[in-house]
Design goal:
Blueprint lengths: L5 E3 L8 E5 L14 H11 L11 E5 H7 L6 H14 L3 E7 L5 E7 L1 E5 L9 E6 L4 H4 L6 E5 L9 H15 L4 E5 H7 L10 H19 L2 E11 L2 E11 L14 E4 L5 E4 L21 H10 L6 H10 L2 H16 L7 H9 L2 H56 L2 H15 L6 H14 L5 H10 L2 H14 L1 H8 L3 H7 L4
Length: about 500
């Protein structure tokens, strides 16, 4: 088995985006027991999965990476907490409820990881390596429609794993375009992995979980829950409707190691430096920190530059979405403009299309159907060509076989055979109701021979009298000379069987 390559978080410090499959049968609403330390470790690894990855690798996270990503204090307790969390992740599972091909709902359990590792040397035990279970590929890699993309900086300040999970669930609904969404309380318990004995009274569940989650989401994230409605059956609250509203949130970029960066001043002057000291710039200077350019950035920015799309937006696109999704969204809008459609806010609409996974998924689905149709057409064409070739081979075989058969029968035919055949035809034809084959064979023989039948005229009849007569003669000879006929057919049997011909 080939050795897996190791991907290190320290090489991907700029990545804050995670992508996971949504929907009832996805990880967003899957039941899993994770405390906040376990979730932070899990989320850190998710930021290392790239949009174009086709398979998992081995992921290495240093505890300082997690502390930095979630803006935690450098406290010794976190080192032990995350080391313990890594070991517990080995036992963590996701439970999804999905409909199988028989139309029935199944509860499917999927392990999170297949292996966690840490260095043996004490001085190096601040690193953790983790490998995801291959069964998670459809939920983290081969993403279909309804997947959720989240910037992890929205949850760095949330301390409750219930609040984090609730944010993911509601954010996904908001990204689907839902301004309000209703969940049964029992379903929310299932999603949040809250057992019946935990917060058995709705009042405590509401205060400790739902209200706390709403406060955290409204305070720290890019989502706002404007109000909730409680739905009762008799006197018990059985469901909750959340009213959702997106909100802008300025996400801070954590400071990294000194690197080559471009500073754009409002006066148009460009300063390139390896050590940024914003406090030394003029007060009216606007600073934009841009990553280094690459070919993909140049390709996309060249397309959108005429529509006043900022470089920062393009960087966000290529960091968050697969190349194909970005190009599809951009070209979708450009094509609308090309055919004369009026779009009031081109930049906003283009950003919306790039951020619409369903556009990409529908495109992939249509491409897949197109490929399937093309493959089906090609297969049908190949079958027709193959069938035509076989039919041609059959025709050639039949022609050569019947020619050889005719010559073989002529060699068997002598005065006695001819007399026996004529006698049989005459006797059968003299009956009140002779068979059609006998009547036609006798008529054809008389017509070709002119009534004078000898070996020459009989052979002439075999060549010219037609299919009915030759068929009759063949059957008569096969009945009366079975051994000789069997020996004649033997060399032809293999090819006849290959072509599906019965001789």
């Amino acid at each position: 088995m080939p050795q897996l390559s190791v991907r290190k978080k320290q090489d991907y410090q700029e990545r804050y985006t995670i992508r996971i499959q949504g929907g009832k049968a996805g990880l967003v609403e899957a039941t899993t027991k994770m405390d906040i330390s376990e979730f932070r470790l899990f989320a850190t690894v998710l930021t290392m999965i790239l949009p174009d990855d086709e398979d998992f690798t081995e992921y290495e996270i240093r505890i300082p990476d997690i502390i930095k990503l979630f803006d935690l204090n450098r406290n010794g307790k976190y080192y032990e907490a995350f080391k313990d969390a890594a070991l517990r992740l080995m036992d963590r599972k996701f439970v999804v409820y999905e409909q199988k091909e028989d139309g029935k709902e199944y509860k499917t359990t999927i392990p999170l990881s297949i292996q966690t590792s840490e260095p043996v040397l004490v001085g190096e035990q601040n690193r953790i390596r983790l490998q995801f279970h291959p069964k998670l590929k459809p939920y983290l890699l081969d993403l279909q429609r309804e997947y959720l993309t989240v910037d992890i900086r929205n949850i760095t300040e949330i301390q409750s794993h219930y609040s984090v999970k609730l944010y993911f669930v509601l954010k996904h609904q908001q990204r689907l375009g839902n301004k309000k969404v209703r969940y049964d309380v029992s379903r929310l318990r299932q999603i949040l992995a809250i057992e019946e004995h935990e917060y058995p009274l709705y009042g405590s569940l509401k205060q400790k979980v739902f209200q706390k989650g709403i406060e955290d989401i409204n305070k720290y994230t890019d989502l706002e829950i404007t109000k909730i409605e409680e739905h009762k059956h008799v006197r018990s609250v059985v469901a909750i409707t959340f009213h959702l509203n997106p909100k802008e949130r300025q996400l801070e970029v954590k400071s990294q190691k000194p690197q080559r960066q471009v500073l754009k001043s409002s006066g148009g002057k460009v300063v390139v430096t390896n050590n940024i000291e914003p406090q030394r710039l003029a007060e009216d200077t606007t600073v934009e920190v841009l990553p280094q350019k690459n070919e993909l950035f140049e390709e996309i920015y060249l397309l959108v530059k005429p529509y006043k799309i900022s470089k920062k937006t393009v960087y966000a696109w290529i960091n968050e979405f697969p190349k194909e999704q970005v190009l599809l969204g951009v070209n979708y809008v450009i094509e609308k403009l090309r055919v004369g459609e009026k779009i009031q806010n081109i930049g906003g609409y283009m950003n919306q299309m790039v951020n619409t996974p369903s556009l990409y998924e529908n495109y992939k689905e249509s491409q897949q159907k197109k490929e399937e149709r093309s493959l089906k057409l090609q297969t049908e064409t190949n079958l027709k060509i193959q069938s035509a070739a076989i039919e041609k081979e059959k025709a050639q075989f039949n022609e050569s076989y019947f020619k050889a058969q005719n010559e073989f029968y002529k060699k068997l035919i002598n005065e006695n055979v001819i007399n026996s055949i004529i006698k049989y035809l005459m006797e059968e034809n003299a009956k009140e109701k002779p068979s059609l084959v006998v009547a036609m064979s006798y008529e054809q023989l008389m017509k070709v021979s002119g009534g004078k039948i000898d070996k020459n005229t009989f052979e002439k009849a075999m060549d010219e009298a037609g299919f009915t007569f030759t068929t009759f003669v063949s059957e008569w000879i096969e009945t009366n000379f079975p051994q000789e006929v069997s020996q004649f057919k033997e060399p032809f049997k293999v090819e006849a069987a290959f072509l599906g011909i019965d001789i």
